[in-house]
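Incident log, structure service

09:12 report received: a user says their structure output differs between two submissions of the same chain.
09:20 pulled the input from the user's history:
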Amino acid sequence: MNVDDPVNGLPCIRITPPAGRTDVSARLYPPHDELPGGWYVRIDNRTRHMDFPLYLAGGVHAAFFTTAAIAARRAVRMVRGELLASC
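09:34 re-ran on a clean worker, output below:
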């Protein structure tokens, strides 16, 4: 589903699992002028009060993905990890 990010108003796709004990979601941002490197993913764990981007392994740089499908797979994997870590 396309939504506007509540923080910066940019268009994004939000992935939200069914409601449970943990309130977590992912936002996928398409490439645009401010993020020209590719699709960008942020994870929002409202239960733990954490909001962070996906990072490249071994680095301090945010990860960018060439397609929405690749970004979505990584986002779903991270959301699942957040759900398991919060149990």
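09:41 both user submissions now match this output. Likely a transient worker issue. Closing.
09:42 reviewer note: The CA atoms of residues 5 and 11 lie 6 Å apart. The chain has a mean pLDDT of 84.
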